[in-house]
Design a protein that fits this description.
With 259 residues, the protein is an alpha+beta fold. It contains twelve helices and six strands. The strands form two sheets. Strands 3-4-5-6 form a four-stranded antiparallel β-sheet.
Length: 259
């Protein structure tokens, strides 16, 4: 069943490419990798047998008949595998979105940190930035979920409505600011000076992230474009903010404190 094989391989290849983007070494998905992945897909799955028919041309040379090779022969012998792989609609838009978010959902904290560039959200020293990024990745990993709500498409453009759940970073910042406000009224805040205040602010923000249990859910319209090869997701600001749980705007409220 070459059609099912093509679907399985294309889905696996898309997931592999997304995972490569979350690899510390940023390894490219090479042609060799694609062959290895096709082999793994064939070994891992059992495919039903499908009968196909095609015309085979032969030419006689002296006393021997020879098969006449043309560019379609490989495709015919493999049950149309090459034709299925060339179909830009092999995976529908909603399936492409599902694979993207399903892959992100399976990431560990380090992969999430790299894929979402979390360590670049705060312009602070490396040690503190790393701690914040790790805590945010843990929060997103614990909360992240998604649900496909609707899909519409024409020949080249599609829109998929997705419900995305992630950690509520606005709630985190609200908790941080409440704790900070209380601490600033104490004698310790007065005695610590500017440096002590900055260290306490960093500690409170980190603790607020680590102890958070709040999540937020929003509906996002995701645009996809068919470039003649496949459907490609357009990762715009709305999608990023939904995955990040509003972290950009939330951290803007505290960036001057912790930097």
């Amino acid at each position: 069943d070459a059609h099912t094989l093509a679907e399985d391989y294309t889905a696996a290849a898309l997931k592999k490419r997304i995972t490569c983007d979350a690899n510390p070494s940023q390894v490219e998905f090479s042609l060799k990798d694609s062959y290895l992945l096709l082999g793994e897909t064939l070994k891992k799955n059992d495919y039903k047998l499908v009968d196909t028919t095609f015309d085979l041309t032969l030419r006689q040379k002296e006393e021997t008949w020879h098969v006449v090779y043309d560019e379609n022969l490989d495709n015919q012998i493999t049950g149309g595998f090459l034709s299925y792989m060339a179909d830009s609609n092999l995976l529908p838009p909603e399936e492409v979105v599902k694979i993207h978010f399903g892959t992100i959902k399976d990431f560990d904290t380090e992969q999430l940190n790299i894929y979402l560039s979390l360590d670049s959200l705060l312009d602070t020293d490396d040690t503190y930035s790393s701690s914040i990024a790790h805590a945010m990745a843990e929060q997103i990993r614990a909360c992240f979920d998604f649900k496909i709500l609707d899909a519409k498409k024409d020949e080249r453009n599609a829109q998929v409505k997705v419900q995305i759940t992630s950690s509520d970073f606005k709630s985190i910042v609200a908790s941080y600011q409440e704790q900070l406000s209380g601490w600033l009224q104490t004698s310790q805040a007065m005695a610590g000076g500017a440096e002590g205040r900055r260290e306490k602010e960093r500690q409170l923000l980190l603790e607020s992230i680590e102890k958070n249990n709040a999540s937020t859910t929003r509906d996002v319209d995701i645009t996809l474009v068919n470039d003649g090869t496949s459907w490609k997701m357009q990762m715009d600001e709305n999608v990023a903010q939904a995955i990040l749980g509003g972290v950009d705007s939330a951290l803007a409220d505290v960036s001057e404190d912790v930097e």
